[in-house]
Amino acid sequence: MTKEFTLEDLKRVLLASAGAAEGVDLDSNILDIDFADLGYESVALLETGRQIELECRVSLDDGALAQVRTPRALLSLVNGHRNAANAQLREAS
């Protein structure tokens, strides 16, 4: 089974995809802070989503990504897709 995509994983991908806004401390408790307040707009989140898709081997719908407002919500979306993919693999074997 694939390990969970964590907040640390997300921070790494955010920094690689879109950098960090001046004055934003990604090492603080950001789980429930709106991405806009963290300095990430829709284009940055779409790029982050593409990087997550490549890394996690999942497909994230652009509409679903557009609805995600916080890191907690994005982690839930990614891990939900990963869990579904893992369940399908288990059923197939």
UniProtKB/TrEMBL annotation:
Residues 14-77 form the Carrier domain. Pfam families: PP-binding. The keyword Phosphoprotein applies. SUPFAM superfamilies: ACP-like (SSF47336). Keywords: Phosphopantetheine, Phosphoprotein. This is Acyl carrier protein. The lineage of its organism: Bacteria, Pseudomonadati, Myxococcota, Myxococcia, Myxococcales.
